[in-house]
Amino acid sequence: MPARASSADRLYLDHAAATPLRPEVAEAMAQAAADAFANPSSPHAAGRVARHALEASRERILALLGGRTADGRRDRLVFTSGATEANRLGILGTGRARGDGGWIGVSGRDHTSIQAAATELAHRGWRLETVPLAAAGTIAVDAIRAATAACPAARPRILAVTTVCGQSGIREDLAVITECATADGLIVHADATQAVAWDEVDFATTPLATLALAPHKFGGPRGIGGLVVRGGLPLLPLAPGPQELGLRGGTEAVSLAVGFAHALSLAVAERRDTAARIAGLRTRLERALLTAAQAAGVEALVVGSDSSRAPHVALVAFAGVDRQAFAMAADLEGICLATGTACASGSSEPPTIVAAMGIPPRFRQGVVRLSLGRSSTSRDVDEAVARLAALISRSSRTSGADLSSP
What we know:
The protein is α/β, with parallel strands linked by helices. 39% of the residues lie in helices and 14% in strands. It has two domains: 7-20 and 271-395, Aspartate Aminotransferase, domain 1 (Alpha-Beta Complex); 23-266, Type I PLP-dependent aspartate aminotransferase-like (Major domain) (Aspartate Aminotransferase, domain 2), CATH 3.40.640.10. Helix 5 (141-149) runs parallel beside helix 6 and helix 7 (254-296) crosses helix 11 (378-395).
């Protein structure tokens, strides 16, 4: 077996899982750790410094996401440990506040944290519906309406949506969701974790009740996330505590909140230019991989190529290729890529959206996700294609069980 590529030769194509911490963010966090080290719940002067830094970060993030920060029904931002907790709080907190029994809809494009939270509501007597996807990879609105029509009007109805699919990069059509939510009285929770770096988020103008995100997707720290909550929305905690307006326990991580706010500010300021550049790199990457596959006699396709997509994700399917073997061989060649979302890594099943979109079975075991980020360059793309082309060529001559040998 060949030696693993050195870190100097490593090409990182898994930005949808996590992005490098930006130096400016690390600096802001270090300064906050030095200046605002105290417990923000302490009433003394040092505690007040920490509290000010925490609340200033909260207000900054909320404003950048288009939340209402002034009037009597101001929206709230609850800091969490990450997007998983934010998704759980948005779904379980909203559902439990309305009692047992209702309708909860999810889809095959949603993160496992959404699926798990919906399943917990089902154990509490809610009717769980997995809403099918349209061919474009978005939620089939007619199916939502048919499903909710079977739920008594007096019962609450929650729909979970993923604004940008972490598996494929396909965007959800929020205009259609808005129309559906208005007509059918849906409480809508959105996972915007993959969207914030690339698409404008204006919470006040959406039908959303809650919105989840985490900054490690756009150059911010790990270990913190947030849930934006519509003003006046009833919400019960997952684990009661005195922090975060009684929705959480545990001393708030001030330096992480500062890093969150700083990373979001930078991402919003650079969003348009960065998105345009990364979209060009992704097109270059996809075309080159399809060309390499064709040269090797391997059938290949880009999942969602005709759909509206955020610019950073390329989900490529190779017929007759074992994706796990391919990913391991790529790792030995110094390329970091994925076979789906990081939380489902190692699963024997392909990304759920592949089957949900009706991708032909011969492609489903050969799906790999390559994702770009702000730090990606044309050199990264060209070098990755050169190394992957050799793997694709080898895959056409093997069963896929061992791609590590020429």
